[in-house]
Amino acid sequence: MDRRSVIKNLTLGIGYSIAMPSLITVFNSCTSKGDDWQAVFLTNPQKIFVTYLSDIILPPTDLPGALDLAIPQFIDKMMHNVVIDEDKELVMKGWEIFEKVYREQYNKETAKATREECLELLKTYFNISKEREEYIFRLIALDVEEVPASEIAVFLTYKFLITIRSFTLLGYYTSEYIGEHVLNYDPIPGTYEACIPVSQVGNAWSL
Fold first, then answer.
1. Residue 205, SS3?
2. 81 Cβ partners below 8 Å, 6+ apart?
3. How far is CA 90 from each of CA 25, 73, 105, 158, 181, rounded to the nearest angstrom?
4. pTM of this prediction exceeds 0.85
5. pLDDT of 166-206, one tens digit each?
């Protein structure tokens, strides 16, 4: 499946309860590209890993990738401005576990991590069976108080990783470039037609 088809299909399935004006405000403040941006929430090691993770999830192809659209900055500001304190705490505990696993596996500090190491470690979490994947998503849907003690590390680690993945996709699909150049975009729509075949609609609409 090509990248445009992935964007068309996945956009239809992304759900979130954040008000669109909040998203626009956050995203409009994310203009710096590359490494020359100042994080407002993430520590330097977290910034490095979030940059690598978002690049691995959405690398550049025939379309801009996550780094081209300032997605790490978007994630940083979402964590700072939008995520509630309780969820921030869970995500950061998950980061601490992930960071510990990295240090033990590569015998160095996370600030010196490489993209290749991050990809290798990420594969151990996401190259899993369908049954394991379904279990993970059932697990992270629980309140933390409901999670068995034996599974709390798994719960927290995936809370961190899936939060980063979700915000990467959310930031990408709500970006101005994707909205105007990949999804259907019509700033001056015509008449409303309630019943037309999906095949005639084409890509999901950004406006």
1. strand
2. 22, 26
3. 25, 20, 23, 10, 36
4. no
5. 889 888 887 776 666 665 544 555 555 556 665 655 555 44
Amino acid at the residue 118 = C
In a 3-state reduction of DSSP, which class is residue 184? strand
Residue keyed to tokens 């403040």: 29
Helices (H), the chain: 3-13, 20-28, 44-57, 71-81, 85-106, 115-126, 130-140, 152-173, 176-181, 198-201
CA dihedral 47, 50, 54, 56 (to 10 degrees): 110
Decide if 145 contacts 156 (C-beta within 8 A).
Answer: no
Rg (C-alpha) for the chain, rounded Å, is: 18
Structure tokens given for 139:
């697990």
CA 192 from centre of chain: 33
